[in-house]
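User: Could you walk me through two proteins back to back? I'd like the raw sequence and the structure tokens for each, with a short line separating them so I can tell where one ends and the next begins.

Assistant: Of course. Protein one, sequence then structure:
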Amino acid sequence: MVPKFLVGDNTDHEDAVYIIHTEYPRFVINLEDDEVEWFDNLDNENEEEATQEVQNLIQQAEEFYQREVDRYEELED
């Protein structure tokens, strides 16, 4: 089973860190500039509800990344 969120990087974009959301709606966030690339369209007819869903997913992605950073720092200590 693939985790809901993954951290990614790419040597062609040295300063960028990416968070990949693997479940519907799939997307990648570039934390360097907060750009979001969507792989799926939201099927929600209610725009307000869709906006709230997107905001929640992005917040979860940011919380996931912070938790990962904290865990790496703990391992270094």
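----
Protein two, same layout:
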Amino acid sequence: MSMHDPMLQPHTPDHPELISVVVATYNQSKYLPITLDSIWFQSYPNIEIVVVNDASTDNTDAVLSDYIKAVGQEAVSFASSYNEQSGQVERCEHLRYPPQGRELRIIHHYENNGLSAALNTGFKATTGEYCTFIASDDMLIPTMLSDLKHVMDKTGADFAYADMHIVDDRGRVLRCFSLPDYSFEKAFCHWYLCGVCKLYRRVLHDKAGYYDENIKPQDHEMFLRFAMNGAKFIHLPKVLANVRIHDKERHVHNHSSANWDRLYRESAELVLEARRFLQQDTLPEVSES
């Protein structure tokens, strides 16, 4: 697919459908405002943001309170006109966070229930026709939602995914992660190669349920279940998110070595499940030509 393909040129309708973005967070207050900004300042005009604080023990509550206050009150300005009579440069003031087409809701867990449970709380509270989630230390490129929704609308796909930059704690790009064009085999039977930078139709949850709270690779398992239930996937060959890899000193909780070992073991089991499924079924796919 050429990067000049008309499918990559979004057109926003007069009454755009709502996109819901879930942010499940636990003890990542340092990164959370950057993540939320990357959603708020998306080019797509109608977004619902649902943050689930999974009983964080750091200052996440205070960071969220400050963010809500800034959204409602904080103003910024820019030099807009030179007044010849006064000799002054006049400034135009406006809200830092444009309120149109944005809704922010915060949900609190009072016990730490884990990522899958936090995602389920968030998605069950959403109301958008399209939805996604982002880790609370990652960042979306400003056109991510517009680009992915556009390619879904053009092709009739149920699930769209794009490429990523892998960045370090400071936000420096370590590498570009370019994913394969979709086939069930490429996405699920070699390893898990879709789904970090993604958008999908919320109706998929109505058909296939929510995230399994008993495993670590919850997105791998959920999206494999979508595929095995007939969802149509498409890959957009464009970097649309920055995914953060932490320094060794931050390898805690989900990033601990024990949890990573479990995640890889359970993902390997899902790969074997996908291979068995492929041997007995034929899946719908979306052509990218």
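Confidence is low (pLDDT under 50) at residues 1-11.

Let me know if you want the two compared in more detail.
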